[in-house]
Amino acid sequence: MTLAFPIGIRLLPTLNGSNTVRTFRYKIFILIFTFLCYTSYHLSRKPISVVKSVLNRNCSDPDVVDDHHNHGNNTKWCDWKPFDENNAGSLLGSLDLAYLFAYAVGMFFSGHIAERMNLRYFLSLGMISSGLMTVLFGMGYFWNIHSLFFFIGVQIIGGLVQSSGWPSVVTCMGNWYGKGKRGFIMGIWNSHTSVGNILGSLIAGIFVNTAWGWSFIVPGIIIGSLGILVFLFMVPNPAEIGCDLPDQSSAAKYAANEVSEKSDLEYGAANTSQTSLISMTKEKPISLLKALRIPGVIEFSLCLFFAKLVSYTFLFWLPKYIHVKANYDPEKAADISTLFDVGGIFGGITAGLLSDFTGMRASTCVLMLAISAPVLYIYNLYGSLSLAHSIGLSMVCGFFVNGPYALITTAVSADLGTHEILKGNSKALSTVTAIIDGTGSIGAAVGPLFAGVIESSGWNNVFFMLIGSDIMALLLLLRLVYKEISAYFRS
User: Which tens digit of pLDDT belongs to each residue from 29-79?
Assistant: First the structure.
């Protein structure tokens, strides 16, 4: 065994049995382990959306009580400086921008680095560093820090190190699971995003009204601890332990249709059989330019820019929106906001199933995007009328908003990263995943920033921005939809 072989894996019983049995056991282990890893990523980035409600709020609200001081007409006494002025929305938006822009920039570098170093080391280091940054943000409460530069600095570093997660876990899953039912499997697996958001909201909600620093510290400890387990147990590629490689031959119809147009592309991977490709040292990572030339990468990347803009605006602003529109206290608003992610779980699974059944990834995304635009409008109109309206419409909204986002970042990214024109080179997967999600993350940075600026003019304008973004995401996939439908009727 090499030095790169994880120490803890020797303690597991999965090394015993036939190769088929061992492969099956490891696949289940990787599925669960990577699920928990990325759950912790979202768990640690969710608290900021919950804590916004107490960093800046109406201190004259009857729920805000201070028995020891008389604050007179000062309606900002309970706010956390420097978020106690009229520009608080912009300042809070700048925290989102700092994190998400750093995350987007880091994503492009992460994919490049992940393909050039041991993936287990890379993911472990990223998770431990993410934990430290999350804890540091929470310590700002206990250290009584009121410097905007401190919080922005922590957000920037936190965004950079958090970009280690997505290329790593998608590459692990792509290496272990073939294309056959990838949409369904990854649709279930991708629920880690929503589960992490839900847990992050619930944990942050416990402390938000008492000592909001713990809302960050507890999630930071969780992701850091899991990072240590990654170092001990993660096996990123079946070839590392002699397990069977998955079948990557059956591409989705949109990819198969494009192969004939782009088959003249030249890549550095050796044109050898599947068996010979298990020697990973013979595979060469591809450049960003060559990855962009893979059919479908540009369209899905730009689509994800707008789809993720919508999803992350909800991620960072939904608790505050519910708090303001429905007049619920911050803890209750945080709890209700989790229902958006519950709907997102079912949306991701449904999108994966539908795309597997039809073989039409782009058409599935367009269908859900077309429905989500009017759903967003309805949610803004009626979502705050009652608790029942808020619960029901939050789930429906999450279903259609997160479905396309989940499908593109998982099954589509894995399909394109193992495209036929790559001739079996598994080294492309991290780069392709990073390009798609990195482009989407730029949209994720822009959305919450715009929401923070626009929110002062009314939430209606925020929702008009989200609806427009949904329509743009839909339009960017129409060429691929046309090709999918044409291929379907020719078959």
Answer: 889 999 999 999 999 988 988 888 788 776 665 555 454 455 455 556 567
Distance CA 212, CA 50 (A): 9
CA 399 – CA 344 distance, rounded (Å)? 4
**Does residue 337 contact residue 394 with C-beta atoms inside 8 Å?**
yes
Task: Check residue 285 and report its DSSP letter.
Answer: P
Positive or negative, the CA dihedral 221, 222, 223, 226 is positive
Cα 70 from Cα 79, distance rounded (Å): 15
Q: At what angle do helices 47-55 and 297-325 cross, to 10 degrees?
A: 40
Question: Are the C-beta atoms of residues 207 and 214 closer than 8 Å to each other?
Answer: yes
Query: Tokens standing for 491?
Result: 């078959």
pTM of the model: 0.72
- Count Cβ neighbours within 10 Å for each residue of 400-430 and write b for 16 or more, e otherwise: bbbbbbbbbbbbbbbbbbbbbbbbbbbbbbb
Taking the CA of residue 443 as centre, how many other CA atoms within 13 Å lie in the half-sphere pointing to its CB? 27
Go through the domains of the chain in sequence order and give each one's CATH number: 8-55+87-266+284-490 (1.20.1250.20)
Cβ atoms of 314 and 401 within 8 Å: the answer is: yes
Q: Spell out the residues 6+ positions from residue 293 whose beta carbon is closer than 8 angstroms to its own.
A: 262, 265
